[in-house]
């Protein structure tokens, strides 16, 4: 996050109006566009595909302990994936 001085980038009228609400504090202005977690890197899709594969293997009869070893995850994590609706 980059800090900028409001007086250097905002019109005086707008700055005065903002000062009516807040003075001497840091104000965060969010971006108009927002990317959800994992969208930009593609990890969200990769994890979804991995989890689908784990579910398929479980439905084919692979035991939870075996899946945990194959995917380097804990048995509890595998259970969360396969039993999630």
UniProtKB/TrEMBL annotation:
Protein name from the UniProt record: Mor transcription activator family protein
SUPFAM superfamilies: Homeodomain-like
Species this chain originates from: Vagococcus fluvialis
Superkingdom: Bacteria
């Amino acid at each position: 996050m980059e800090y900028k001085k409001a007086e250097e980038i905002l019109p005086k009228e707008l700055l005065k109006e903002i000062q009516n609400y807040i003075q001497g504090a840091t104000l965060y202005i969010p971006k108009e566009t927002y990317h959800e977690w994992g969208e930009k890197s593609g990890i969200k899709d990769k994890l979804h595909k991995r989890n689908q594969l784990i579910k398929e293997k479980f439905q084919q009869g692979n035991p939870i302990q075996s899946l945990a070893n194959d995917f380097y995850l804990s048995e509890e994590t595998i259970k969360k994936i396969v039993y999630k609706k």
